[in-house]
């Protein structure tokens, strides 16, 4: 059994997608990040970076003590290796998937996240920041669109690279992006959206940024006002 500590953010949804695709036995443990549950002492022992998602695998390969993990990319890699799916076994195929997985965790996610923050959440509009991150998100969409020009999925068969990237494309409208400008990306996006596992993963999930531009001040302090004192 795997405990998945989850909230309905793009990074949380990556792992929910994997669980639905793989069928690995798991239970979802909600972590309400607006209420500050990610700073609870018990949770910090699992996820010292006080972010979601995180997991505890109570039945790791080879047995022994449970394995606890944080960081969504590391979790996807661990789970793909555990079940022997969504990551090629050959060295070249594996390298293709991993470089695009790291492209997402190092580029698409952080840039789109900052885009969403300054466009939707920031208490004051900062034109330079909005322009910077909306344009960079647009550039990254262009990279992915070009990659998908001659292939169905990002790195061959459907893989953890696709699962990592898809949830960050879902909020394309609030991120100021028009998928009609990226026909290969749109085709890929619609293909993944139609997968039964994707439908299950997103069932009941609120649209990104829905009613989030008027966050209560106490919740805003939890989400955006933390310092090192929060994790000591």
UniProtKB/TrEMBL annotation:
**Keyword set, alphabetical order:** Oxidoreductase
Q: Which Pfam families match?
A: GST_C, GST_N_2
- Do you know which PROSITE patterns this protein is assigned to? GST_CTER, GST_NTER
**Where in this chain does the record put each GST N-terminal domain?**
1-87
Q: Which InterPro entries match?
A: Glutathione-S-Trfase_C-like (IPR010987), Glutathione-S-Trfase_C_sf (IPR036282), Glutathione_S-Trfase (IPR040079), Glutathione_S-Trfase_N (IPR004045), GST_C (IPR004046), Thioredoxin-like_sf (IPR036249)
Q: Where is the signal peptide?
A: none
EC numbers = 1.8.4.-
EC top class, in one word? oxidoreductase
Q: Name one GO molecular function term.
A: oxidoreductase activity
The GST C-terminal domain sits at 90-217
* Protein name in UniProt: GST-like protein
């Amino acid at each position: 059994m795997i405990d998945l500590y989850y909230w309905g953010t793009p990074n949380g949804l990556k792992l929910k997608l994997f669980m639905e695709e793989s069928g690995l036995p798991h239970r979802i443990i909600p972590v309400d990040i607006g209420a500050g549950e990610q700073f609870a002492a018990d949770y910090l022992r699992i996820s010292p970076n006080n972010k979601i998602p995180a997991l505890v695998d109570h039945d790791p390969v080879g047995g022994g003590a449970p394995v606890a993990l944080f960081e969504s990319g590391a979790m996807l890699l661990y789970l793909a290796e555990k079940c022997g799916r969504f990551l090629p076994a050959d060295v070249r195929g594996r390298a293709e998937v991993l470089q695009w997985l790291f492209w997402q965790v190092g580029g698409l996610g952080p840039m789109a996240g900052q885009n969403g923050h300054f466009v939707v959440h920031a208490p004051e509009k900062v034109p330079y920041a909005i322009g910077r991150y909306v344009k960079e998100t647009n550039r990254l969409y262009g990279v992915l669109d070009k990659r998908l020009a001659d292939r169905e999925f990002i790195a061959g068969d459907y893989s953890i690279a696709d699962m990592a990237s898809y949830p960050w494309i879902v909020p394309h409208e609030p991120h100021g992006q028009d998928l009609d400008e990226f026909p290969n990306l749109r085709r890929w996006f619609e293909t993944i959206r139609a997968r039964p596992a994707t439908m299950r993963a997103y069932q009941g999930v609120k649209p990104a940024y829905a009613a989030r531009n008027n966050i209560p001040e106490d919740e805003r302090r939890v989400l955006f006002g933390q310092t090192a004192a929060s994790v000591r």
